[in-house]
Design goal:
Radius of gyration: 17 Å
Oligomer: single chain
Distance between the termini: 31 Å
Number of domains: 1
CATH class: Alpha Beta
CATH architecture: 3-Layer(aba) Sandwich
Helix content: 40-55%
Largest sheet: 8 strands, mixed
Shape: globular
Order of helices and strands: EEHHEHEHEEEHHEEHHE
Bound molecules: zinc ion
CATH superfamily: LmbE-like
Number of strands: 10
Number of helices: 8
Strand order of the largest sheet: 1-4-3-2-5-8-10-9
Structural class: alpha/beta
Length: about 240
């Protein structure tokens, strides 16, 4: 695990929010407008990226060992644009992520350590996107591990008992925002931060041609905006844990 501190570490009283994804760039595609708003509102936002992003190129001259540091740097640049203060790379191998107990334990430790009130993760029940895209198995694996880290693992004292020995007391997350879901019921108006979302995604130069980003994002976020009666939006399924 690698913890990159882009801003100050959160003082104990600062409220925190966490975004758990599979790959560098996932959060820029899905939730960056929301995270930029949270930063503006005074939250300390933590990105947790489960894989090393190493398989994100089919170019013969871009083997995994060359791509890893490039994607890490791109993710940190994107986070800086948004004001996200902490980026944590778990560095599992890209492409073969599984929702193992080890991954769940790692995420549980991070949730207990940073104590977010809201955690964002991908909807693990989504296999397809319209009829043109198979959801990447890493996205589903990260989403499932994140959900079960939130509940029951983070809030149940003697689950992963060894975490107690590290001083990590149980923590109850209040809300889960599922991104990439087929059953959205909540939107966030990102009109004020859509430009930051564009600039953040443009940092992922190894994944998307920067010159095409603006039109794509304005198109997608604009389509969601029309659905909810605002200029630009991101949408979620919101789970409120009682
Ligand atoms: Zn991805």
């Amino acid at each position: 695990m690698e913890v990159i501190q882009l801003g100050a570490t959160p003082p104990p009283a600062t409220p925190t929010r966490m975004v758990i994804t599979a790959h560098p760039d996932d959060s820029e595609f899905t939730v960056a407008g929301t995270t930029a708003l949270w930063v503006r509102d005074g939250y300390h936002v933590i990105y947790v990226i489960c894989t090393d992003g190493s398989r994100g190129s089919n170019e013969p001259d871009m083997p995994p060992e060359r791509l890893i540091p490039i994607r890490r740097a791109e993710q940190c640049e994107a986070a800086s644009v948004l004001g996200v203060q902490t980026v944590i790379f778990l560095n599992h191998e890209d492409g073969t992520l599984e929702p193992t107990l080890q991954l769940r334990r790692e995420l549980t430790g991070l949730i207990r350590s940073y104590r977010p009130d809201i955690v964002v993760c991908g909807d693990p029940t989504r296999y397809f996107n319209r009829n043109v895209y198979v959801n990447h198995p890493d996205h589903r694996a990260a989403g499932e591990a994140a959900l079960y880290a939130i509940f029951p693992s983070a809030c149940t004292r003697f689950l992963f008992r060894e975490l107690l020995d590290e001083g990590l007391e149980p923590h109850k997350v209040h809300e889960i925002y599922l991104s990439g879901t087929l059953e959205p019921d909540t939107f966030v108006d990102i009109t004020d931060t859509v430009d930051l979302k564009v600039r953040a995604l443009q940092a992922h130069r190894s994944q998307v041609p920067p010159e095409t980003v603006e039109a794509r994002i304005r198109d997608w976020a604009g389509e969601l905006g029309r659905k909810y009666g605002v200029a630009f939006a991101e949408e979620y399924r919101r789970i409120i844990l009682r």
